[in-house]
Design brief:
The complex is a heterodimer. Chain A is an all-alpha fold. Chain A has nine helices and no strands. In chain A, helix 7 packs antiparallel against helix 8. In chain B, helix 1 packs across helix 2 and helix 5 packs across helix 6. The chains are: A mainly alpha, B alpha/beta.
Chain lengths: 158, 336
C-alpha cells in the first residue's frame, strides 16, 4: 500500500512490444533503392569491364581462354587487395554496396581488410586466426554447394 | 524501511548536493570538427594518439583526460580518493589500463553508452553519503576500437544504414566534491532495463528510446515536478532517429519535456559530417556534458539540466544468438 506509482510498468502496459515494433517500422528511414541500384550497377559494372578488358588483352596475346580467365581473376584480386590497402575500396563499397561485394574483388577486400584489422594481435592469433573472419562463411557454404552440385552432376551423368 | 533520500520508485534526492568542481574532455579529430569544437579542452590530430593500437589510444585518451581535469583544478592525482569509469570494450580494458597508470583507487563500470550517467550517479551517492570528498566520474569510447569489436574491419566495403551511428572518440571526466563552487547534482534516477524487442544492430536508437522515456517519466513522477521544470532535457545517444521515436513516445505518455528536449548523439556532429543518425558511445554523452553543456551552465545559459545517458546492453554474441537489445537509461539532474 504505497502512494508511489511505478510509471515504468504503466508505460510498458500502454505501449506493448508489438505496437512499438510497428511504430519503429513505420518511422525507420530506409536507404533509397533506386540510387543504390544505379550505383551498384555502375560501379559493379565498371569492375567487370576492367576484368573483361584484362581478359581480352590476354586472349589477344595468344593466351588460352582457360589461362586467361584464371590470370584475370588473379589480377582482379590483386587490384582489390591494393585498393583495400590504400583505403579506396571501402569508399567505393559505401556507394556501390552489392556492386563491390558480389564480384571476386569483394572477396579479396574482406580478407585483406580482416588481415589488416587483426595484425595488431600478432600473425598467429591475429592475422592467422581472423583472416577468414568475414570470408569464412562464403568459403564454407561455397565449398558445400560445390560438393553438392558435384555429386548431383556425378549421379546424373552416371 | 523508508530512507530519507529516496523519492518515489527509482529516484534519489541528494541531501547534501555534491558539486561538480571541474570537468575536462578530449575528443578525436572528426569529433573536433563538430560545431562544439570550441568547448572541448583538447582535440587530437590523429586517432592513434601516438600509440600503436586503437585500444591503447582509447585508454590514453581517458588517462590524459583525468590528468587534465586534475590539473585544471590545481590538484594532484593523489588528492582523488576514488575514480569510477567505464567504456565499451570487453572487460572495460580502456578504463582498467588507465587505472593501472593513474594509481587511484578504482571502480570499473559497464553501462554501455550510459556509463557517463552511471559513474555520475554512483560518484554523487558516494560523496553525498559522506564516504569520500573528491571522486572522479569518467567514461570514454573510441570509434575504431568499438568498430572492430562490434562491427566490421575498418577497410571492409560495407554500406551504412541511415540509422547507423558513429561511435564518438572522446573521453570526459568530472570531479565530484562535497563542497565548493560549481553546478550541483541534485537528483538521480536509476533506470530499469527496458527491452521492447528491437534486434536491429544497425539501429540502437529505437532499442534505447523506450528506456530513456521510461526513466524520464519516472523521474518527473517520483519528484512530482512538471515536465517544464528543466531548461534542457538531453538524452545520451539515441541519434536523430531514436530521438524522433522518443518524441513520439513522449506524446503518447503525455510528458513532453518543455521547453527543450534534445539528444547528445543527434547534435554531436554537423549534418555535413556524414554520420547518418549521429553519434553514439560512452564518449558522446561524456564529451557533450564535459564540453558544451557544463560550460553553458557555468555562464548561466542553462541553469537546470537533466542528463539522461542511454545504453544498449547487447554484445555481438547475444545478437547472433537471436537476442533482442536490452537498454538502460539513468538520469542525473544538474542545477546551478
Amino acid at each position: 500500500m504505497s502512494e508511489v506509482n511505478d510509471v515504468t510498468k504503466d508505460a510498458l502496459k500502454k505501449i506493448n512490444v508489438k505496437e512499438y515494433g510497428n511504430l519503429v517500422k513505420e518511422m525507420k528511414p530506409k536507404r533509397a533503392l533506386i540510387p543504390d541500384l544505379i550505383w551498384a550497377f555502375v560501379i559493379g559494372g565498371l569492375i567487370c569491364l576492367v576484368a573483361q578488358f584484362i581478359q581480352n588483352q590476354f586472349i589477344i596475346n595468344g593466351v588460352s581462354i582457360l589461362d586467361a580467365r584464371a590470370s584475370t581473376a588473379i589480377i582482379m584480386i590483386f587490384l582489390a587487395a591494393l585498393a583495400t590497402g590504400l583505403g579506396i575500396y571501402d569508399i567505393l563499397g559505401e556507394r556501390a554496396g552489392a556492386g563491390t561485394i558480389v564480384p571476386i574483388t569483394g572477396f579479396a577486400n574482406v580478407i585483406v581488410a580482416s588481415a589488416m584489422e587483426f595484425k595488431k594481435e600478432g600473425y598467429v592469433f591475429g592475422v592467422g586466426a581472423k583472416i577468414f573472419n568475414v570470408a569464412g562463411p562464403t568459403l564454407v557454404f561455397g565449398i558445400v554447394t560445390a560438393m553438392l552440385i558435384g555429386l548431383i552432376k556425378f549421379f546424373l551423368i552416371s | 524501511m523508508k530512507t530519507d533520500k529516496k523519492r518515489g520508485m527509482q529516484t534519489i534526492a541528494l541531501s547534501n548536493p555534491p558539486v561538480l568542481a571541474g570537468w575536462a574532455t578530449i575528443v578525436g579529430p572528426k569529433e573536433g570538427e563538430s560545431p562544439w569544437q570550441n568547448y572541448y579542452d583538447k582535440i587530437l590530430s590523429d586517432y592513434m594518439f601516438e600509440e600503436d593500437t586503437f585500444e591503447k589510444a582509447e585508454s590514453k585518451i581517458l588517462r590524459e583526460t583525468i590528468k587534465l581535469v586534475v590539473n585544471k583544478n590545481n590538484l594532484q592525482l593523489d588528492d582523488i580518493e576514488v575514480f569510477l569509469s567505464g567504456d565499451l570494450l570487453n572487460q572495460t580494458v580502456s578504463s582498467n589500463y588507465a587505472a593501472r597508470e593513474l594509481e587511484i583507487p578504482y571502480l570499473g563500470l559497464y553501462g554501455a553508452c550510459s556509463t557517463m550517467a552511471e559513474s555520475l550517479v554512483l560518484a554523487s551517492m558516494l560523496v553525498d553519503g559522506g564516504f569520500y570528498n573528491k571522486v572522479i566520474a569518467a567514461a570514454c569510447s573510441h570509434h575504431y576500437s568499438a568498430e572492430r569489436q562490434f562491427r566490421f574491419p575498418v577497410e571492409q566495403g560495407v554500406q551504412s544504414n541511415p540509422t547507423n551511428q558513429w561511435t564518438a572518440t572522446a573521453a570526459g571526466a568530472l570531479i565530484v566534491e562535497n563542497t565548493g563552487i560549481g553546478p550541483y547534482i541534485t537528483n538521480l534516477t536509476v533506470g530499469k532495463v527496458v527491452d521492447m524487442g528491437q534486434a536491429d544492430i544497425a539501429d540502437m536508437g529505437s532499442a534505447m528510446a523506450p528506456a530513456a522515456v521510461a526513466t524520464i517519466k519516472q523521474h518527473f513522477a517520483d519528484l512530482n515536478i512538471p515536465s517544464d521544470y528543466y531548461d534542457l532535457v538531453i538524452t545520451g545517444d539515441l541519434g536523430s532517429f531514436g530521438m524522433a521515436i522518443a518524441e513520439q513516445l513522449f506524446i503518447k505518455e503525455g510528458i513532453v519535456p518543455q521547453p527543450n528536449y534534445t539528444d547528445c548523439g543527434a547534435i554531436f556532429f554537423d549534418k555535413k559530417q556524414k554520420v547518418n543518425a549521429g553519434a553514439s558511445g560512452c564518449g558522446c554523452a561524456a564529451a557533450m556534458l564535459c564540453g558544451p553543456l557544463l560550460n553553458m551552465m557555468k555562464i548561466g545559459k542553462i541553469n537546470k539540466l537533466l542528463l539522461v545517458a542511454t545504453g544498449a546492453l547487447m554484445s555481438p554474441i547475444t545478437s547472433f544468438q537471436g537476442e533482442s537489445i536490452p537498454a538502460i537509461a539513468h538520469a542525473v539532474a544538474i542545477e546551478n
